[in-house]
Amino acid sequence: MPELTLLHWIYLSVVLWVIGSMIFRRDVVVPCIVGIFLIGWVYQEFKLVGAAQTVFRALETSGTELFDIMLVIALMVAMLKALQSIGSDVLMVAPAKRFMTKPTVAFITLATVMYIAATFFWPTPAVALVGTILIPVAISAGLAPLAAAMALNLAGHGMALSGDVVLQGAPAITARAADVDVALLVTKGWMFATITGIVALTVAYFMLRKRNELVANAEQIKKNELLKSNTEVKKTAVSKFFAAAVPAVFFFIIIVMIRSNLNPDLPDIKGGGATSLLGGTAVFFLLASSLAGHGLSALEKVVGFLREGFLFSIKIFAAVIPIAGFFFLGAPSLAPVILGEGAPGFMFDLGTALAHVLPLGTVPLAFGIVLIGIMTGLDGSGFSGLPLVGSLANALGGPAGVDVATLAALGQVAAIWTGGGTLTAWAFGVVADAGIAGVSPIDLVRRNFACVAIGLFITTLVAIMIL
């Protein structure tokens, strides 16, 4: 059992402070920065200069570790902005309109299209695309606005974001904290996210139908703002071409990635390689669509699209970087980078010590990591808790003899379903989905609760069988 020092107890105290702040719906950036400062101060023999340097190195290390994720998200959003400027975004989802003839079909179509769009573009930009275009069609087909919001929210900010199988932002953060291969996190995270999503959407549909809340009434149709503002977009040859080319190329990339993982004779495209391929393709379409749609003015337009993409990305990760910086102190591979050679991984040591004291079995570990994931998601981010669940999975899973990747993926799914989000009314995802559908975020969360709880419970049982 590792020897626990004053630094370990400081680290544990700050972790409890962070969790307590999340429970009381307070931001956790300040506790994390204070924690980094205190640990640096004590580790550097109570020197303020060393403490200040530790804070900077923690943020620098965190930013370096997460930059590739921030970059690919920024480039994908920039590409989407370019497509929106020529009307291709509307045309990409237009084929789904012809299927929306009844409330049930509209619910399934909204969830399916949102899942696909959110998988490639992330849910926040995707909800503006799918919601604005398809919700008016869904409501016209008789689907209630609350049901439409649930379909968007559960499929996008729940199932797609918690799996994050294409951009791999969430698995990358969790994997780095858990010190496991990203590919394992992607596979198991996608499986758990899909199980939770299918169960939650199924429960939501039957619950809405039982309560007579699936079908919109005349007053809801009349009051919905999107129906009033829905306008036809001018179709051009350029917009039609890119509306077909973009999804076709990204679909081809997915096929190539799948084949490369199954066929050992092909180059292995996963993790950083997959991120690079997606980011490079996004840049190509950003330039091509801008030049084709705007001519010489594309020289200025592209800069604007990139600026919007990077602003969107940094808004997400501005809070994640200091939080990750603190929790990276718990990882044996990253703590020495921040504090210096010989520094221990505090979370790993604490978990190892706990494993020697408590009989940590598969069942309490599985439900425990889900509970911790839910608590970390209460801040309304979802991503801020990934370093914690990853570190805990590594610290507790290894000594207990269970699969660390499975445990980390389970915590990741619980954290993002909660804060990404579907269960926190103050989460940007809930606010965006509810706002685009014209319903209350509190009502959306209230309806989501039972659906997501059942989904996470079943997923946890599946994880227990795998661990």
Characterize the structure shown.
With 467 residues, the protein is mainly alpha-helical. It has helices at residues 6-23, 29-43, 48-86, 88-93, 103-121, 123-140, 145-163, 169-178, 182-210, 218-223, 225-229, 237-262, 272-294, 298-327, 335-339, 346-357, 362-377, 386-400, 404-422, 428-437, 441-466. The chain has one domain (6-466). The longest helix has 39 residues, at 48-86. The chain is globular, with a radius of gyration of 23 Å.
Q: Write down the Rg.
A: 23 Å
Q: What's the mean pLDDT score?
A: 87
What shape does the CA trace take? globular
Strands, count: 0
Q: Could you name the ranges where pLDDT drops below 50 across 5 or more consecutive residues?
A: none
Helix content: over 70%
Strand content: under 5%
Helix segment tally: 21
What order do the SSEs take from the amino end to the carboxyl end, as H and E? Answer: HHHHHHHHHHHHHHHHHHHHH
Structural class: mainly alpha
The biggest beta sheet reads: none
What is the terminal-to-terminal distance? 23 Å
The number of domains is 1
Helix-strand layout with pairing:
Elements: H1 6-23, H2 29-43, H3 48-86, H4 88-93, H5 103-121, H6 123-140, H7 145-163, H8 169-178, H9 182-210, H10 218-223, H11 225-229, H12 237-262, H13 272-294, H14 298-327, H15 335-339, H16 346-357, H17 362-377, H18 386-400, H19 404-422, H20 428-437, H21 441-466
Helix pairs in contact: 1-2, 1-16, 1-17, 2-3, 2-14, 3-8, 3-13, 3-14, 5-6, 5-7, 6-7, 6-20, 7-9, 7-19, 7-20, 7-21, 8-9, 8-18, 8-19, 9-19, 9-21, 12-13, 13-14, 16-18, 17-18, 17-19, 17-21, 18-19, 19-21
